[in-house]
Design goal:
With about 190 residues, the chain is mainly α. The chain is built from seven helices and no strands. The model has no long low-confidence stretch (mean pLDDT about 85).
Amino acid sequence: MTQEIQVAKGFNWQKFLRKHWNVVTIFVAAAILAVIGVIVVFLWFVGNAQSTALVPSTLGLWTMANLVSFILHLIFWEIIFIGIPAAIAAAIGWEWWRRRPYDEKSEFNFGKRSRASRGGSGVSLLLFIAFAIKVYIDGNWNVAISTWKLDYVVNSVITILIWLAAIIGIPLLIALGWWIHRELTRA
């Protein structure tokens, strides 16, 4: 009896695919085209960036300004050519799903979502932004990255880690002190 209930609660992919094979095919094809589009736009942008002198063609001459400019321009073009059409397709898919009758949607119970995340939580992006700020403060924004010494990069990383420890650690210490004080006065 318990096995029947568990099977009934699960999502029946075969039934879903048989019933909506045409829509699923369209969205799978759209996802494949989006992945191909991301690669094509990236290759187009890299070739264009070198020919329009947005960045030097030799990697040894790149500066932090070139790197940040390259990344921001690439994000812009990816959003324009791929992101906006993908968002429109996602809205169409959501609207299609919303228009399904309640009885049909209740058959396809996706289950509870997990709150666990497999993402990197943005720490790499935070460290890159902090490194870019450190390079700018040091006056090395338009200096070729290939001229940087190893000790400059290592010292910059250590400085960034100290900044982050201060920015995150001081409020944590204040909160911990407040919590300990509250617990001691409560008893």
